[in-house]
Amino acid sequence: MVRALAVSDEEVAGLRTDAVRRLGVDVVVAAGDLPFDYLAELCDRTDRPGVLVPGNHDVDLSGYRQHRGMWTRAGHPCPWPGPAGFVDADSRVVDVAGLRIAGLGGSVRYRHGPNQWTQAQQARRARRLVRGARRLQRRDGRGVDVLLTHAPPRACGDREDGPHHGFECLHDVVAALRPRVLLHGHIHPHGERVPDRRIGATRVVNVVGRKILEL
């Protein structure tokens, strides 16, 4: 059993204290649109690794690679703009703290900026992600435990205004990979209780603010 602190979109003031250590988590999972210094502090205070996907308000993290402790982009050394202690899972499958996590960041495109995709663009990214996850599963027999996204699936916890539509392709990703849980942000509850939803056997959880999950 892996105990995860899942966060997204809204800072929780109490997590910027040493009290966060008492949560006893094994990993910090971030679904986007949080200050990177906040995320780095969560990793530092919990002394645990983190994994993220970017939200539509985050900077562009694409193209960065780490090799022998050095970050590069387009073959040139450079600092990584993301939070210390975190692995970027956008369009990738990563193994962190005993979990296999597949990630798709960003929201539906509604203005110019990074981490925004049309439905067709995200569907292409989703197909590449599924192919990568299947290659790994053929190699070691392990499936995906968590699908980590910023926006939710369409008609599964999203909204009817354009910027808060979910992605239709996420239904296909869930059907193909059958993760135990899909974690997303982007949809602010504004004080309302947000029930978990299901796509088949996959639990869909809105983690805006923070959630503690046993995975």
UniProtKB/TrEMBL annotation:
Top-rank taxon, per record: Bacteria
InterPro entries recorded: Calcineurin-like_PHP, Metallo-depent_PP-like
The Calcineurin-like phosphoesterase domain, residue ranges: 21-189
One matching Pfam family: Metallophos
Protein name: Metallophosphoesterase
UniProt organism field: Pseudonocardia benzenivorans
Source lineage: Bacteria, Bacillati, Actinomycetota, Actinomycetes, Pseudonocardiales
